[in-house]
Amino acid sequence: MGMKKSIYDLPSEIGKEISGHLPSIKAKTNAILDKHTRTLFQPPAILSKFLEFVAHGKQDHAEKIFTIRKKNPHQLQELLLERGTVTDYSGRTFTNISAYEYAYWAKDKHMCRMLESHMDENTKAAMLKRCEAIESNGLTYKQHGVEVKNSKHFDLTPLKTALNNYIDGYDNWESSQNCDAMKAAWMEVGKEQRDVPVHVANEYCRKDRSFDPTPQFNEDKLPRKLAFHNYNTNKGESWFPLVISDSSGLAVDFALIRAGRGVGAAGPWGLDAFGGAG
Fold this sequence. Notes:
Elements: H1 12-40, H2 43-55, H3 59-69, H4 73-81, E1 84-87, E2 92-97, H5 99-106, H6 109-116, H7 121-137, E3 139-143, E4 146-151, H8 157-175, H9 179-193, H10 198-205, E5 227-230, E6 235-238, E7 257-258, E8 265-266
Parallel strand pairs: 5-8
Antiparallel strand pairs: 1-2, 2-3, 3-4, 5-6, 7-8
């Protein structure tokens, strides 16, 4: 006997029994789907995604979320003021923080400007007080299990120090062919590059201007690019999310330089990579 292929092929008494349950099954299925949809667009779900987009530099994505609230200006302002938990690409987890507070701490002025453009006067006043509190007391976050307190803003000093140490030691290391010391110093640069907020990586990776001559960083828009060319693999890769193993990755076998205009960031290592160690 062949297998029955539909409810209509079943004996009439069985078909009637199953058909009697279909409205109930359909109603329950629709209820599940409706619950899922409502959950997706409830404030906690939107807030979580909104915070993630801001911390990850996905400015266009963050702004599109406002379209969900554009018909209700009150809800839009609530979203801007709402606080939650977010982890950035470098593994810093902030709790009880709003999107603007994170952008302010990270010194991401492009993200700040976008968020400000959607604030009403009351929200701006409230956010000013929060920023004043950050300037006075800083923020607390956890990174790799370590709690950091009273952090008023991301500090570029460790990256600048690592770069200066590499530059200061380069000539001696090159003349003595001390490749181990040279590479160790360069990996320290990479270690600090792991830690930068995403907008710093965007500045490295943008192709429309280089760091020479030193730019004013006053452009109206920041290309949110994270791609770089890895000379070790001769492939295009992404700065974030970090992909690191025991044998490869940022600060393992390369660090990043800002290449010339039209190239963006590049990740070489080796004495012949770009006329020196690198």
